[in-house]
Amino acid sequence: MVSGSEHTPDFADIAVVHWQRERPDLDLRAMGTLARFARLNLVGGRQVDAVFAAHGLDRGEFDVLAGLRRTGVPYELSPSHLAEILLITRAGMTKRIDRLESRGLVTRRAAPEDRRSLLVGLTPEGLAVIDAAVTDHTRNESRLLDALTASEVDALDGMLRRLLAHVGAAGDEGHGEGRAPTV
C-alpha cells in the first residue's frame, strides 16, 4: 500500500499538473481528489451493477427489493413510502414496481386499513432473489474496499459523512430519477 505522497502519478495527477501549468492562479487541491472519487464511483458502480445483473436485476429494481426486504416481515410498504425512502418520484417507483410485478417478484394488494391505498410486498421468489443478490452485493462491496485496512475504511466513512453533511446531500429530499442509494 502506498502512503503519503509516495505514489505513481495517475490520470488525475497528470490533469492537475497540466492545469497548474495553464492556470497557476487556481487552487487545484480538490480537483485530483474529486476526479479520483468520480472515477471510483464509475468503475465501482459498474462492478456493483454486474452483481445485480447476475441476478437479473438493475440497480433500481435491487433498491426496491432491498427496501422491502430490510423492513422485515411481512416485507410490505406503500409505493409512496418506498419512493420516499429511495429518494425517487412516485412515477419512477410505479415503473419499477410494474417491472418487478410482471416478473413475479412483488405483488400489489389493497391496504387493509384503507382499501384506496396499496401495499407492495415481496413474493417468495422476490425474497429468494433479493437474499441471493444482497449476499453477493455485500461480498462485492467488501472486495471493493479490500485495499484499505479496517481503520482506513472507518476513517473514510467518517470523512464522507462530514463531506455529505457539508454539501447538504445527507438530508437531500430532492426526488429524481438519479441513482438511489443502494443499501
Automatic annotation (TrEMBL):
Chain ranges of the HTH marR-type domain: 24-165
GO terms classed as biological process: response to stress
PROSITE patterns: HTH_MARR_2
Single GO MF descriptor: DNA-binding transcription factor activity
Name used for this protein in its record: MarR family transcriptional regulator
